[in-house]
């Protein structure tokens, strides 16, 4: 039996902190509104000249080091992002070059906030089929570059960061991805999107004047779909593995909103002590939130051998996804 084993993790958040009080000076908002509606107190953003690949590189280097391998051992690099360095080529190709991972194939996937679990799922399949042995997956975003800093409905929420994991084919069933479950429903695409800059509305003076290159979000509509979908994805993942909610030692949810996280935990009857929360300090860095939370939890020594980790994401598309990992 070949198991997809997580042999190393790494993460990187930019140094620059933007607090809710800083945002009060930019848009008509308040620390009180942001804290009570989202749970966010501050978030990290990159300096202007820092591209996605730089964040992804820092997180990847740490993951490769903690895995005890060399970059040239990698067979494949997958980057989950919706804020790549460029439309062409993929950021994964830039990362491959920066790491010196000469043997690795490389591609990006766009599944928004579900990007890390989507990438994990792809890696899981390649390893289980024996096609590839060692795979780097990254969830990374520089959303500060694609949000409208005059739009209070988005600029208070989104942030920057990167997290990475190295998976390797192993005969030992520890630190193993037991299953992944992916979902999508394009009827809700209209609730979270960037209208300009693609082939539908190629970049032009008009698209820029209309601010079409920024994220547009209908948060209220997404809120309801997110809670329903995340609960469903968790229950499907647990059932698939013959587990019950009480068997879960750690829930690592996507960090979109503390109220969504709490509602998901409540529906699963999980106490908040089992739930990893980073949103207060990092905001919503889309595909990066789960790998950052996973890496920080491991580094804090909070993941014990044999622990059952349930992780669940929800994001633009809409997409949602879940995974069960046995440490
Ligand atoms: N500061 C102050 N007021 C704000 C505000 C801000 N930053 N943003 C919106 N408001 C106002 C609205 O204009 C509205 O005012 P009105 O009642 O006078 O019309 C009021 O606050 C309520 O807005 P609403 O959008 O209903 O708030 P909400 O409770 O739904 O919270 C979100 C907004 C975005 C925090 C929440 O809907 C959310 O987290 N949605 C899910 C996001 C998500 O999952 N995205 C996909 C995955 S990343």
Brief overview, please?
This protein is of the alpha/beta class and 327 residues long. The chain has eleven helices and 13 strands.
Q: Can you walk me through this structure?
A:
- It is built from 11 helices and 13 strands.
- α3 crosses α4 (91-99) and α8 (219-240) runs parallel beside α9 (258-267).
- The model has no long low-confidence stretch (mean pLDDT 98).
- 33% of the residues lie in helices and 24% in strands.
- The strands form 4 sheets. The protein has a 5-stranded mixed β-sheet with strand order 1-7-6-4-5, with helices on both faces.
- The two termini are 17 Å apart.
- It has 2 domains: 3-172, Thiolase/Chalcone synthase (Peroxisomal Thiolase, Chain A, domain 1); 177-326, Peroxisomal Thiolase, Chain A, domain 1 (3-Layer(aba) Sandwich), CATH 3.40.47.10.
- The protein is α/β, with parallel strands linked by helices and 327 residues long.
- It is globular and about 55 Å long.
- β12 (308-315) and β13 form a beta hairpin.
- The site of coenzyme A has 19 residues, from α2, α6, α8 and β12.
- Coenzyme A (COA) binds next to α2, α6, α8 and β12.
SSE inventory with pairings:
Layout: E1 3-12, E2 17-19, H1 20-24, H2 31-38, E3 42-44, H3 52-67, E4 76-80, H4 91-99, E5 105-109, H5 115-129, E6 134-142, H6 152-155, E7 160-170, E8 176-184, E9 192-193, H7 205-209, E10 216-217, H8 219-240, E11 250-253, H9 258-267, H10 279-282, H11 289-299, E12 308-315, E13 319-326
Parallel strand pairs: 4-5, 4-6, 11-12
Antiparallel strand pairs: 1-7, 2-3, 6-7, 8-13, 9-10, 12-13
Helix pairs in contact: 3-4, 8-9
The protein binds coenzyme A.
């Amino acid at each position: 039996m070949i198991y997809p084993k997580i042999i190393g993790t790494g993460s990187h958040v930019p140094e620059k902190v933007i607090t809710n009080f800083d945002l009060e000076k930019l848009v008509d908002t308040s620390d009180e509104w942001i804290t009570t509606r989202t749970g966010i107190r501050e978030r990290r953003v990159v300096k202007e000249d820092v591209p996605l690949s730089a964040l992804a590189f820092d997180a990847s280097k740490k993951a490769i080091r903690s895995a005890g391998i060399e970059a040239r051992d990698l067979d494949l690099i997958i980057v989950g992002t919706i804020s790549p360095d460029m439309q062409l080529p993929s950021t994964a190709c830039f990362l491959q070059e920066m790491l010196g991972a000469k043997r690795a194939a490389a591609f990006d996937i766009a599944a928004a906030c579900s990007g890390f679990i989507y990438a994990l799922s792809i890696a899981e399949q390649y390893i289980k089929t024996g096609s590839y042995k060692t795979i780097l997956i990254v969830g990374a975003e520089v959303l500060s570059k694609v949000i409208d800093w005059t739009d209070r409905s988005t600029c208070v929420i989104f942030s920057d960061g990167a997290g990475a994991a190295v998976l390797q084919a192993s005969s030992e069933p520890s630190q193993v991805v037991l299953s992944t479950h992916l979902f999508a429903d394009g009827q809700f695409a209209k609730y979270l999107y960037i209208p300009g800059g693609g082939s539908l509305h190629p970049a032009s003076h008009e698209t820029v004047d209309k601010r079409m290159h920024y994220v547009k979000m209908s948060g209220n509509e997404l809120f309801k779909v997110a809670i329903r979908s995340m609960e469903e994805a968790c229950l499907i993942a647990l059932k698939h593995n013959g587990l019950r909610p009480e068997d879960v030692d750690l829930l690592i949810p996507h960090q979109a909103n503390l109220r969504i996280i709490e509602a998901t935990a409540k529906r699963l009857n999980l106490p908040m002590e089992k739930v990893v929360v980073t949103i207060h300090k990092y905001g919503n860095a889309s595909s990066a939130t789960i790998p950052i939370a996973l890496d920080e939890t491991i580094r804090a020594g909070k993941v014990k051998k044999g622990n059952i980790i349930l992780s669940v994401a929800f994001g633009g598309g809409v997409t949602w996804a879940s995974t069960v990992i046995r440490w």
